[in-house]
Amino acid sequence: MNAMEAQQKIEALKQSLEQYSYEYYTLDAPSVPDAVYDQKLRELIELEEEFPDLQTPDSPSQRVGGKPLDAFVKVQHDIPMLSLGNAFDDQELRDFDRRVKNGTDNEVSYVCELKIDGLAVSLKYEDGVFVRGATRGDGTTGEDITKNLRTIRNIPLRLEEPVTLEVRGEAYMPKKSFIGLNEVKESNGEEPFANPRNAAAGSLRQLDPKIAAKRNLDIFLYGIGVWENDSSDSHSQRLEKMKDLGLKTNPEWKKCNDIEAVIDYVHSWVERRADLDYEIDGIVIKVDDLDQQETLGFTAKSPRWATAYKFPAEEAVTKLNEIELSV
Ligand code: NAD
Q1: Binding residue per annotation — 241?
Q2: Where is NAD(+) annotated to bind (predicted)?
Q3: Average per-residue pLDDT in the chain?
C-alpha cells in the first residue's frame, strides 16, 4: 500500500471509529459488536505504525473514551483516567511481559483481575466520607454522577477509616438485572439495551437518580488515582487495604509470579466466565510493584505497566448474539 492509499484507508477507519465511539460512549447504544470496533482500531494502529507521519493527535488510537454529556456538571480528573493496551493471544501476553522486563530490568510479579464490563467511575473520599463520583469521560474530563452513584448500596458513604483518596472501579449491571430490565423495556415498547455494559452506563448517565436507584447496579473497585499518606509498596497490598476500608473489590484477583502463570489464569477464565453473575470481557494484568509501575509510566492513552487480555472475538460476537436473542 502506498502513502496515498494508506491515507484514504486511515481516514475511512477514523470516520467509522468515531461514529462507533459516539454511539457507544455518548449514546450508550452501540451499533456494532466490540469485536468489530477492536478489529478496525487494530487496523488503524497497524497502518499508523507503518506510516507514522499519518498519525494525528486526534486519532482514535490516541484518545480515551468519549465526550462528556453537556447535561452533567464536568469533573476534571486530578490524574487522568486512561484506557488499557490490549493483548489478544498468549504471544501478545509474552510480548507485553518482554516490554515490561525491558523497561524495569528486574524480575516482575503481576496481579491478574477480571475485566468487568461496565462503566469506569472515580469515587472521591475526603476524611473517609464519599464526596464525589464521576465517569471517566474522555479521560481528562468526566461527568459528575455523585447522586446516581449514591444509589449503589455497595458504595460506602463512609469508609472504615478517615482517609482521603480517589478510588477507581467499574459500576456494572448484574446479568439477571439486565435481563429483567430489558423484559420490562420491551413490554413497554421501548428499545432494549444492547448489553449489560450499556445498560449500566445508560442508567448512571441519567439526570434523575430515581432511575439509577431502580436498576440494581453494583460495583467493583480496582485501582487508585490518589491516596494521601498511603505507604503501600504494591498493587496487591492496596487491594487488601481497600477491602479493609470497606470498598468492594473483586475476590477473584490473583498474584502471579511470571507470565506463564498469568496465561494459565487467563485460560482458566475463558470457560468459567459464563458462571459469573456479571459480564467480563477479559482479564486485566498489572505489574504488582508500585515502584516498577512508576518506572514504566504511561503512553498518551494507557499505562505501560498493565494490559487487558480480551477474550476471543468470535466468542464476543456469539455472546452478543446470544444476549440479543435471549431478551
Ligand atoms: P478497555 O475497556 O479495553 O479497557 C479500559 C477499561 O477497563 C478501564 O477504563 C476500566 O473501565 C475497565 N476495567 C474493567 N475491569 C478493570 C480492572 N480490573 N482493572 C482496570 N480496569 C478495568 O478500554 P476502553 O478504552 O474503555 O474501551 C474500549 C472498549 O470499548 C473496547 O472493548 C471496545 O470494543 C469498546 N468499544 C466498543 C464500541 C462499539 O461500537 N461496539 C465503540 C467504542 C468502544
Answers
A1: no
A2: 34-38, 83-84, 113, 136, 170, 286, 310
A3: 92
Q: State the distance from the centre of ligand 1 to the C-alpha of 325, rounded, in angstroms.
A: 24
Buried/exposed code over 194-213 (b: 16+ C-beta within 10 A; e: otherwise):
bbbbbbbbbbbbeeebeebb
Residue 60 has pLDDT above 70, yes or no: yes
Whether 42 maps to a domain, the answer reads yes
Query: Of residues 115, 124, 241, 319, which has the active-site annotation?
Result: 115
What's the average model confidence in pLDDT over 205-230? 94
* C-alpha of residue 83 to centroid of ligand 1, in Å: 7
Domain of 102 in residue numbering reads as: 64-322
User: Vertex 240, ends 238 and 245: CA angle to 5°?
Assistant: 90
Of 37, 219, 323, 324, best ligand 1 pocket probe by most atoms within 8 Å of the beta carbon? 37
What is the CA(142)–ligand 1 centre distance, in A?
15
User: pLDDT confidence of 313, banded at 50, 70, 90?
Assistant: low
Q: Is residue 172 located within the same domain as residue 102?
A: yes
Pocket test of ligand 1: the residue of 14, 32, 84 to mutate, having most ligand atoms within 8 Å of its CB, is 84
Q: Are residues 5 and 15 in the same domain?
A: yes
Say if residues 311 and 273 touch (Cβ distance below 8 Å): yes
Rounded (10°) CA dihedral 118, 122, 123, 126:
170
Does the annotation flag 136 for ligand binding?
yes
Buried b (16+ CB within 10 A) or exposed e, 285-294: bbbbbbebbe
Whether 115 is a known active-site residue: answer: yes
**Model ipTM?**
0.96
Residue 164 and residue 304 share a domain? yes
For residue 262, say whether it is annotated as part of any ligand binding site: no
Number of domains in the chain: 2
**In terms of domains, do 22 and 97 share one?**
no
Same domain, residue pair 85 and 139: yes
